[in-house]
């Protein structure tokens, strides 16, 4: 099992050119506004308020960086930089702001060479939304051989078994998580470590 040693906030940045570079491997978290990115990051590192969620969807436009350290049962240590990207797809963001914001994100995601893993969070209750399909295609269009993409389906505690089966029929590799019930979080940590370092 992967254990959390510590985690801390590093900095916030509006764009690639204003972002710091860190020595650890980076994981980028993507998802629609209010999909539960902040809650997932907090659950991964066993802290309640490390990543702050905005009460206004679409308001957070900064790229937030966190550092987290983990260890496995064999005492191997893993240092990761968690990159919380602004939520996408919220209609009430002004078009002019949205265009600048998306341009900055596009540059960051494509040119940030230290990103090893993309985590795409999708609401399990709305698992087949077109915007999420497009995000997957977008990431896969430039994914390097040393990068991976994993989809996690959030708020799975809201689904019954029949509804989960529909998600699995849509995506046979679907990974369910519930930060409310703390379900799937241990497995998520192991998948992330394996995805970045190739071992658990």
UniProtKB/TrEMBL annotation:
Its cofactor is Mg(2+). It holds the Pfam family MMR_HSR1. Residues 23-198 form the EngB-type G domain. One of its GO terms (biological process) is division septum assembly. Keywords: Cell cycle, Cell division, GTP-binding, Magnesium, Metal-binding, Nucleotide-binding, Septation. Coiled coil: none annotated. One of its GO terms (cellular component) is cytosol. CDD domains: YihA_EngB. InterPro entries: G_ENGB_dom, GTP-bd, GTP-bd_ribosome_bio_YsxC, P-loop_NTPase. Belongs to the TRAFAC class TrmE-Era-EngA-EngB-Septin-like GTPase superfamily. EngB GTPase family. This is Probable GTP-binding protein EngB. It comes from Campylobacter ureolyticus. The lineage of its organism: Bacteria, Pseudomonadati, Campylobacterota, Epsilonproteobacteria, Campylobacterales.
């Amino acid at each position: 099992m992967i254990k959390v040693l510590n985690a801390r906030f590093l900095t916030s940045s509006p764009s690639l050119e204003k972002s710091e570079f860190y020595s650890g491997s980076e994981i980028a978290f993507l998802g629609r506004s209010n999909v539960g990115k902040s809650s997932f990051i907090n659950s991964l590192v066993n802290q309640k308020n490390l990543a702050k969620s905005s009460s206004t969807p679409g308001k957070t436009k900064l790229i937030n960086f966190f550092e987290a350290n983990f260890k496995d049962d064999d005492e191997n240590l893993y240092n990761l930089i968690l990159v919380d990207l602004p939520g996408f797809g919220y209609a009430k963001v002004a078009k002019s702001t949205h265009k600048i914001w998306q341009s900055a994100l596009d540059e960051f995601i494509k040119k940030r060479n230290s990103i090893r893993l993309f985590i795409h969070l999708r609401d399990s209750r709305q698992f087949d939304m077109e915007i999420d399909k497009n995000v997957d295609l977008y990431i896969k269009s430039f994914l390097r051989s040393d990068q991976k993409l994993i989809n996690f389906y959030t708020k799975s505690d809201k689904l019954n078994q029949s509804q989960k089966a529909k998600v699995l029929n849509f995506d046979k590799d679907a990974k369910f998580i519930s930060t409310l019930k703390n379900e799937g979080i241990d497995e998520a940590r192991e998948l992330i470590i394996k995805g970045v370092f190739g071992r658990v």
